[in-house]
Amino acid sequence: MSFDYREAVDLKSLTRFSVAELRDHLRHALAGGWRVLAFFGIPDEDAKEAVPGQPVPVSLCCVLAHDGTRRLMARRTPPVTAFVSMTPDLPQLHYFEREIYEQWGVEPVGHPWLKSVRRAPDTFEAQTRNAAAASGVNVSGTNISGVNISGANVSGADVSGAESAVPHEAAPAAAPTDTAVPPSPAQPYPFYRVEGVDVHEVAVGPVHAGIIEPGHFRFQCYGENVLHLEIALGYQHRGLESMLVHGPAARRLPLLECAAGDSTVAHATAYCVVVERMKGQQPDERAQLVRRIGLELERLANHTGDLGAIAGDTGFLPTASWNGRIRGDFLNMTASLCGNRFGRGLLRPGGVAHDLSPQECADLLGRVRAAWQDARGSVDVMLDAVTVRNRLAETGSVEPSVARELGLVGVAARACGLDVDARFHMPLSDLSCENCAPRLEITGDVMARTCVRSRELDDSLRLLELDLTRLAALPGHPGQPCQPSQPSQKSETSAAWPASEGPTPPTHTTPLQAALATAGHESHGPATDFAALPPHTLAVAQVEGWRGEVCHVALTDSQGRILVYKVIDPSFHNWTGLAVALRGNQISDFPLCNKSFNLSYCGHDL
C-alpha cells in the first residue's frame, strides 16, 4: 500500500505478498521512479520466546519512496528462512540483503556478493551456520563467509589483463548440526582478488595515519590503476539497533544522537519525527524553526570542513587552513544554541529543548553571515585556481545510471544529477524554502561533489536568514517551551522543562542528563506521552542531513513496544559508490575521492 510520507501505518493493514510477488512489485516500482529506503527483517511477534538457539521466524519488509508524489509504499512477506536474491535484478537491494542475512540468517540465495556487512568473518560464519542448522537448511557446499565469485564481473569491474579472480582462502562450510556452532579461529576476510601479470594488491587500514575512524580498504591494482576497491567495515559496530529495541525509552534519543557524531541533529530529528508521526503530533512553528536552524548549522559546519579537506588533498593550503577555523565558528554557533558543539540535547520528541530570544536570533544571524562570508571567500579562492580545478575534474567519476542503480543519496547523488533532497521532496514542515532548490551537477566527479557543497553553503545561509528572522518575530520567548500543544508555565531553571511534568532539573545539566530526565515527558501537557506508542504501527522519517538522507523506520508490537527500529545513514547507501568511483583511477586519487564522499564509519556500522 502507498501512503503519505507524514502518516503512520497500521501494520495489520499491510497485505503479505510472497517473495516472488514482492520481486515483481519492486521491479515495477523502481522502474516507475520509486527508490528503496529500507529493506529489513521483522521477527514474528508470537515467536519471540522461541527455543534458545533456534531462529525467530522473519518476514521481509521493504519501504520505498516516490519523491515526485511525496508518497511512501510498504510491502511485506510471510515469514521466510531463505529467499531468491533480488540483487541481480534490483541492485539497490544488494547491501540490504547482506544485512538481512547477517542479522537473521535468512539467506538471499544467489546473491552475487554475500559477505558480512559489519561482523567479522568468523562471527558471521558461525551465526549463519547456527541459523541454517536450527532451521534445517542444508548449507553443504555453500561458502557462508563469502560466496564464490570466481570469474564474476562484479558490478561492471574492468579486469582487463587479469587472469583470474578468486577469494582469499575462502573457508569451506560445515555441515549443519543440532547444536550451536562456536566461532572458528579467526578467518581471513574473503577479499576479492585479481590475479595476473603486473597486478598487485594494496591494503590500507583499519588503523589509519590520521585521527579518524577505522575501516579497511583493499585495492586491486594494475600498475597504478585501480581495477577494484573493496571496503570492509564494522569495526565501530555497537549494536545500536538492538539497544533501541531492548533498552528503555529514556535511552533512545541519547543513543541516536551518537549514531554518527557529525550528524547528531539529523539523527535526533529523525527519531523525534518518527515518534511524533506515530502519535499523530506536529511540533509548532517555533520548534520547527529551531530544528531547521540546528540542521543548517550542522550542514554549514560539515560542508565547510569537507571543502577544506578537499583543498588539503589537492595541496591548496590556504583554503585548507582557513576552513578549519571557519568550521569551528559554525560549531560554536551550535554550542551557543544548545550548549553542545554537535547539537546534543537540542531536540526532544514533541518539540525542542532550547529556544532563542529575538536578541539572540539577531546576534546569531550576524555571526552566521560573517562566518559564511569568510567561507564563501575561502572556497572561491580555491575554485578560482586552475590547478585545483584540473585536479578535481574527471577524478572519481560515477555515472548517473550507476548512481541510480546503487541508490546513492545526498551530495554524492546530486553530483550525478539525481534530484534527491528530502528538504524539498519530503519536507518536515511548511517552512519557506525561498530561493533554494536541490543543487545538481552532472559529471559525478570530485569537482561535481565540491560544487554541490559550495552551492549548498549559499542555500544554508538563505534558510538561516529566513528562520532566524521569522523566529525573532514569532510570539514567545525562551521562557515558553516549544511544544505541539498550548504552552504552559515553565520552571525558571530551564526553558526546556515544563513545570507540570517530570522532575525539576538541576540548574546545570548535561545534554545526556537532560535527555534521560525528560524521556517519557517530552510533550507539554499531560495528554501526550511519547514513551507510550500505539500498537502495530509503522512510521518513517526522512531527514536531509548534510551528508544525505537519514532514514529511520520504527515498528511497534501489540503492546506498543518497539519491535524493529531501523537506522539507515546515508553512508549505508554510499560506501559502494566510493568503491565504484575509484575504478579506472590511480590509487593516488583515493584520498581525494574519499574526502569528496566523506562517509561515516560509525553511521554505517551502528
From TrEMBL:
| Compositional bias ranges of the Low complexity kind | 162-181, 475-489
Chain intervals for the UniProt region annotation (Disordered): 158-182, 475-511
Q: Where is the NADH-quinone oxidoreductase subunit D domain?
A: 313-599
- GO MF, any single term: quinone binding
Q: Which UniProt keywords apply?
A: Oxidoreductase
Q: What Pfam families does this protein's entry cite?
A: Complex1_49kDa (PF00346)
Query: What is the protein name given in its UniProt record?
Result: NAD-dependent dehydrogenase subunit
**Organism of this sequence:** uncultured Desulfovibrio sp
